[in-house]
Amino acid sequence: MTDFNWTRDQFHLPQGMIYLDGNSLGPLPKMAPARVMEMMENEWGEQLIAGWNASGWMAQPTRVGDRIARLIGAEKGHVVMGDTLSIKVFQALAAALKLNPDRKVILSDSGNFPSDLYMAEGLVNLLGNGLELRIVAPEEVEDAITDEIAVTLITEVGYTTGRKHDMAKLTAKAHEHGVITVWDLAHSAGAIPVDLAGAGADFAVGCTYKYLNGGPGAPAFIYVAPRHAKTAQPALAGWLGHARPFAFEQGYDAGKGIERMRVGTPPVLHLTALEVALDVWDKVDMADVRARSIALCERFIAGVEEHCPQLSLCSPRDSDLRGSQVSFRFEHGYAVIQALIADGVIGDFRAPDVMRFGFTPLYTSEKDVDEAVGVLTRILRGALWDRPEFLERKAVT
């Protein structure tokens, strides 16, 4: 059984703050500053460039990838770290299209994160040749998977409402029709149990700064199924994805397996901080996380619906269809979120009217949930959100 009292103690949570935004940025692991400082002083400082060999920096992306693999049900040796999530979406999508060259349609849904859709749009415009990005409503994805689809680009858990797609079911339907699947796990990794190998997923990508607590700007990961590892062609043919990067050859020769999905220089500082967070995750069972997440979400929904009738639940009511966040709609949702933040309860807002609250069992308690409901109730009953400083939109919402 996971000891959630112990996991909570592993993170720095500012005094007086109730943090319900781990679905956007996880808090700082307490051991990260000392470990990163040690790396900077003893590895970077003393070893300088020798650190690439002496401290294993060059192998870090695949070493950390294997640790992520356990949390997403991936085979060892088939996950690698590096770059941003958008870059990894581009890589996976381009490679998937190359595996299905006679088809022209990328299928995604309107609940997908805009950056994923922007990457797909950019790739369609870049490649031309009749390629099309087709977007349907989330609930229409299954029926839209037909023999003309080349690739599905689906985020398993939607960023606004937390609606959860059935990965195994959609992947099976896709394969029945000869479709390659790309799954975005940005709101899945560390939030819900994921079984990429069991579902038969072809490609997957995800970020590490949300539920995995890698820190702002922490690198993304990419998964390539073993059956595609030797044939997937990286559109971004980076130096470190070459089979022999230090041969400095003029022509590109893709590296072995997942190594070919490396692009640029590993972000060693960020990967070092992420490894500290993964030390905590090594002691966590995802089934325990999921059970506690559901309990926390259900507790919050019940409290808000009892005391805040102005708000409308827009997340699925059925926990089996929901990730680890709860979203409510309210006309003045942005101002309410700002009022909550000013009172020490941190959630966030997504246009046009969605108030999001993330529930992260590693450090969120029942007491946090009850106190957050109490603060929200007081703000709504007194219309305390209706102040100029809460109505003015900030750059990050």
Describe the structure.
- Homodimer.
- It catalyses: L-kynurenine + H2O = anthranilate + L-alanine + H(+); 3-hydroxy-L-kynurenine + H2O = 3-hydroxyanthranilate + L-alanine + H(+).
- The longest helix is centred in the last third of the chain and has 22 residues, at 286-307.
- It is built from 14 helices and 15 strands.
- Helices cover 38% and strands 14% of the residues.
- The protein has a seven-stranded mixed β-sheet with strand order 4-10-9-8-7-5-6, sandwiched between helices. A four-stranded antiparallel β-sheet has the order 11-12-15-14, covered by helices on one side. Strands 1-3 form a two-stranded antiparallel ribbon.
- With 397 residues, the protein is α/β, with parallel strands linked by helices.
- α2 (32-47) packs antiparallel against α10 (268-281) and α4 (60-72) packs parallel to α10 (268-281).
- The mean pLDDT is 97.
- The chain is globular, with a radius of gyration of 22 Å.
- It folds into two domains: 4-29 and 285-391, Aspartate Aminotransferase, domain 1; 33-281, 3-Layer(aba) Sandwich (Aspartate Aminotransferase, domain 2).
- β8, α9 and β9 (203-206) form a beta-alpha-beta unit.
- The protein has helices at residues 4-9, 32-47, 51-54, 60-72, 85-99, 114-127, 141-144, 167-176, 196-199, 268-281, 286-307, 333-342, 366-381, 388-391, and strands spanning 11-12, 18-19, 28-29, 79-81, 105-109, 132-136, 149-155, 180-184, 203-206, 221-224, 312-313, 325-329, 345-346, 348-350, 354-358.
